[in-house]
Amino acid sequence: MTNFLLPIFAVLIGYVFVLVFKPSKQKNLKLLLAFSGAFLLSITVFNFLPEVYNNNSKSVGLFIMIGILLQIVLEFFSKGAEHGHVHLNKSTSIFPWLLFISLSIHSVLEGLPIDAHDNLIYGIIIHKLPVAIILSTFFLASQLSRVKILFFLTLFALMTPLGVLLSQETDIFKIYYSEISALVIGIFLHISTIILFESNEGHKFNLTKLTTIIVAIAIAYFI
C-alpha cells in the first residue's frame, strides 16, 4: 500500500509546501534538486542496476540506452520538467497537454518496477517532491485556474501508482520485467545525471552543493 500512497503524498506535500511557504529562493530549490538527483542516481546504481543485470547483460544494456533515448524524446514535449525545468508561457490559460502526457508516461514507467525493489520507492518520492514544488510554483504563478492546477497535479500524482498497479495486474509487465526495468534505469540515469550536471553552474566549486550530494549518496548507500 505504501508504494501506492507515498508518490501521491510526495506531490501533495510539494503542492501544500508551495501554498504555505511560497518559496522564492532558487538556491534552496537547486539544493533540493541536487539532493534528489544524487539520491536517485545512487539508488539506481547501488540497488536497481545490479539486480537487473544478469547473463544477458548486452540485452539489458540495449534497453538502458533505449530508456535514455526515450527520456530525451519525452523531454522534447515536457521541456525538462522531470528535472526541474518548466518552460511554458505563464500568461496562458490553456491546459498544457503535452507537458501532462509526457510527465504521465514518465511517471507510469517509473512506477512499473517499484514493487520488485524495496528501496526504489524512496528514490522516486524524493525525485517527485522537488518536481512537484517547481510545477506547483509555476502553475500558481500562471493564468491557469485552480481547478486546472488541481486536475493536473492530481492526475500527475496518480500516474506512478497506476504504474505499480499495471505491474501487479498485467502479465506482459511480468514477462518482460528485465527489459522494462532496464528501460526505467535508462530514464533514471538520464534524469539524475542531468540534474547533477545542471546543479554545477559555471563549473564553480560549491561546498554546500557538494556536501548535499555526498549526504544523498551516503543515505542511499546505507538504507
Topology:
Elements: H1 2-21, H2 26-52, H3 57-78, H4 97-111, H5 120-141, H6 146-169, H7 171-175, H8 177-199, H9 207-222
Helix pairs in contact: 1-5, 1-6, 2-5, 2-8, 2-9, 3-4, 3-8, 4-6
**Largest sheet entry:** none
Number of domain modules? 1
Shape: globular
Mean pLDDT: 85
**Number of separate helices:** 9
Radius of gyration, Cα only, in angstroms? Answer: 17 Å
Question: How far apart are the first and last residues' alpha carbons, in Å?
Answer: 20 Å
Order of helices and strands: HHHHHHHHH
Which regions are unreliable across 5 or more consecutive residues at pLDDT < 50? none
How many DSSP E strands?
0
Estimate the strand proportion: under 5%
Helix content: over 70%
Structural class: mainly alpha
Task: Walk me through what this model shows.
With 223 residues, this protein is an all-alpha fold. The protein has one domain. The protein has nine helices and no strands. Helix 1 (2-21) runs antiparallel to helix 6, helix 2 packs parallel to helix 9 and helix 4 packs parallel to helix 6. The chain is globular, with a radius of gyration of 17 Å. The chain starts with a helix and ends with a helix. The model has no long low-confidence stretch (mean pLDDT 85).
Give a quick summary of the entry:
The protein is an all-alpha fold and 223 residues long.
List keywords for this structure.
223 residues, mainly alpha
